[in-house]
Amino acid sequence: MIESLLVANRGEIARRIIRTARRLGVRAIAVHSEADADLPFVAEADEAVCVGPANPAQSYRNTEAIIAAARSTGAQAIHPGYGFLSENADFARTVEASGLIWVGPGADAISAMGDKINARNLMAAAGVPVAAGTTEPAADLAAAVAAAAEIGYPVMVKAAAGGGGMGMGVAVDEAALRTEYDKVRAFAERMFGDGSVLLERYFPRVRHVEVQILGLADGRVVALGERECSVQRRNQKLVEESPSPAVSPELRTRLLAAAVRAGEAVNYRNAGTVECLLVPRQRDFEGDGSGADEFFFLEMNTRLQVEHPVTELVHGIDLVEEQLRVAAGLPPTFDPDALTVRGHAIELRVNAEDPKRFLPGPGTIRTWVEPTGEGVRVDSGYAEGNTVTPFYDSLMAKLIVHGEDRTEAIARARAAVAAFDLAGPKHNLPFFADLLENPEFLSGNYDTTIVSRLR
């Protein structure tokens, strides 16, 4: 096993990785910005190094400072968490060129999946279903108009180098496409340094379901079930659950097999997620509840996902431990040929944001009392007295519950939300209280537009 690990991240994910490292007897090293010096993950690490000011470009995305911190502390490996440098192929190469172990997939896999057009083409070649769309960037507006006419409206206009729900727009006709193309291209150039744009078929009523994969040290790729991620605002997730209430056993077999093929196509190692769109039959929205016929590849996230705890709870494994074992060349703690699913898990992302408009609401935490009890887990990045600053993502904690079935998990989620005593920053716990009483959500028969009907 790796003996010392530098965690190149912050907040709840840094704290969560440190927790597993310390349980395994691995020396945990934190890096932090000046703004995060008082956060729990810094205090809980065996050693901590300040790598720069609040601006992420000067701290958490500062490759030179992070590598220097690893060298000065004698770290053997680097875990990037999610966000920041986690899907930066150049950083992965730099880590390995520095003689350190990279806890993640190979740089070639990161590069292959980082470009959405290249990823779509690779997946199609591997037999993974992809929606109708462009196989090369739409070089200009005329090319985009021609492609949309062939695909058929409505179309999704996407930044080829984008991710995390950013750099996307919907065009219902040519007039809208002319506006969205320029908007997405400008955003992509500003945010990602790459203005490449792709178009693909847009489905107004769709579910977002993803599969957790793990590429093992021996070369095999294993699928660890699916997660339902359709409760979203601005194309970004708020709630995840596993298993998905929309996925039948037959569909699950096809979905997991496609995810394994996706991983094998890029010789995937370590943890990753294959995200898909499920297109339900129209009668599903009329109360039939009989599942979805089609699914299409959306993208592959070459890192640990925010929502990984729901997979951990239903499979009884620690994905961070599995990541470390793969990076060290060790076999998994579980039998890949005898995976079992136990019960149902739900994760709620507790953000410092307005519960109606979902606008950021940073501030100092005056009260922070986490819920406890059977089947309740809280992965938090803050504590009472800490300040949620505007420099980073608004995620404060993940409230995860597990029950013997979905009904019990929802009941535990309701109780946990009510018991979470949080004051200071704006927060979205009231939104979750409403969602957990909503008939559409309770039925399990919902899609990515559910939040718009709750506001």
Automatic annotation (TrEMBL):
Name of the protein in question: biotin carboxylase
Q: Which organism is it from?
A: Verrucosispora sioxanthis
Q: Does the keyword NADP apply?
A: no
| Domain ATP-grasp residue range list | 120-328
Annotated Biotin carboxylation domain residues: 1-455
PROSITE patterns linked: ATP_GRASP, BC, CPSASE_1, CPSASE_2
Against Gene3D superfamilies, the record matches this protein to: ATP-grasp fold, B domain
- GO MF term set: ATP binding; biotin carboxylase activity; metal ion binding
Pfam family name, one: CPSase_L_D2
Record's SUPFAM superfamilies?
Glutathione synthetase ATP-binding domain-like (SSF56059), PreATP-grasp domain (SSF52440), Rudiment single hybrid motif (SSF51246)
EC code(s) of this entry? 6.3.4.14
The keyword Nucleotide-binding is assigned to this record: yes
> Which keywords annotate this record?
ATP-binding, Biotin, Ligase, Nucleotide-binding
